[in-house]
Design brief:
about 260 residues, alpha/beta, 4-stranded parallel sheet, 9 strands, about 15% strand, elongated
């Protein structure tokens, strides 16, 4: 397991107000090779979009190309190595645009190893200026399916109670949703209470207790969370697809009813 570390300089962090006020440093991942000039301009546009979402964007290829030639193998590798080092210092990875190059795939794999949140932002979202990471409200019991605290948790997306973290952390919606993989606590009424779950955003895998969760998230609350935090999750996609199919069946049945 790889853990990221932060070097803390002699700086008065109180000047930034509470911890939640500190802007997140975001690594912008987008293509470079091919039409280099056009891709660099796109990266600049992506940075402007990210800045409008309230983060500090960093697109290395808009900087490194000022003094490194991507067509020269040695200089290209130097740029990639510098970019990997920068990723260790960032909070999020934003994969922007509709194309994922080989270099971007390497950045995605490194972000996964670093347990770094990865957001996938399509070109259309940038062009339409649909902002993300704007809603940081913690999810609560009202975001859960009624009575789901007595259901099986295995393979379900759960809402974690904030008190499970203790009182020493500033929490956001990032910390709310967890995918329950296994553990005796997934079974309601079991003697064992352990639930082994993966954070939906950054894939941290942690041992919780069943009592730490409110219950299973409602599809509509999950959809709102995903809209603000566009990630790739097979579990989330399955839940939302099932909800869409269920709604379609309800509408189909309703058409057959007499007024």
């Amino acid at each position: 397991m790889i853990w990221r570390t932060r070097r803390i300089w002699n700086f008065d962090w109180t000047e930034l107000g509470k911890a939640g006020d500190k802007l997140r440093l975001v690594y912008i991942s987008s293509p470079l090779r091919g039409d280099v000039e056009r891709n660099i301009q796109r990266a600049r546009d992506y940075c402007a979009y990210a800045a409008s979402c309230g983060v500090i964007p960093l697109a290395p290829h808009t900087i490194f190309t000022q003094y490194l030639d991507d067509e020269q193998p040695e200089q290209r590798e130097q740029g990639l190595a510098m970019g990997r080092d920068l990723m260790w210092r960032c909070d999020d990875l934003w994969v922007v645009g509709n194309t994922i190059s080989s270099g971007m795939r390497e950045e995605i794999e490194l972000a996964k190893k670093l347990y770094m949140p990865i957001f996938y932002v399509p070109e259309e979202q940038v062009q339409e200026k649909v902002k993300i990471r704007q809603q940081d409200r913690l999810l609560g019991v009202d975001d859960c399916i009624a009575g789901s605290d007595q259901s099986s948790y295995e393979g379900q997306i759960l809402v974690l109670k904030p008190e499970a973290y203790g009182n020493s952390m500033d929490l956001t919606a990032d910390d709310s949703l967890w995918y329950a993989r296994d553990g005796f606590g997934c079974t309601y009424g079991a003697r064992g209470q352990a639930v082994y779950a993966e954070n939906l955003l950054d894939r941290r895998y942690i041992h919780w207790e069943r009592k730490d969760f409110y219950g299973i998230v409602k599809p509509e609350s999950l959809a709102a969370w995903i809209a603000d935090k566009p990630i790739r999750s097979e579990a989330a996609e399955a839940v939302l697809e099932a909800a869409v199919q269920s709604l379609a069946l309800e509408l189909e049945d309703g058409e057959g009813l007499e007024p």
